[in-house]
Amino acid sequence: MPKMKTHRGAAARVKITGTGKLRRRKAMRGHMLEHKASKRTRRLARETSFSPGDEKNVKKLLGR
User: What dihedral angle (degrees, nearest 10) is formed by the CA atoms of 1, 5, 53, 14?
Assistant: First the structure.
C-alpha cells in the first residue's frame, strides 16, 4: 500500500509544536480590520489550539 499523502491545506494552516501540540490562527483577521475593535483584533491575533475531537482529525490529515 502506498504512503498516505499529507493534506497540504491542513499543513499550511497548522503548526506542530515541539511537544506535539497543534497550533492554528484564528479566523476573521484577514480584512476589514478597521471596523473591528482593537481589543478584538488583538484577541484574534493570538494562536490557539484545537478541541480534542478536531485535533484527532487534523493529525490524521497531517499523517501523524
Answer: 160
Cα–Cα distance, 34 to 53 (Å, whole number): 34
How far is it, in rounded angstroms, from Cα 22 to Cα 50?
7
pTM (whole model) above 0.85: no
Domain 8-61, second-level architecture = Irregular (4.10)
Residue written as grid cell 482529525: 57
Enumerate the domain spans of the chain. Answer: 8-61
Q: Is 22 exposed, middle or buried (0-12, 13-18, 19+ CB in 10 A)?
A: buried
What are the pLDDT digits (tens) for 29-47? Answer: 999 999 999 999 999 999 9
CB atoms within 10 A of CB 45: 10
Cβ neighbours of 25 (radius 10 Å): 14
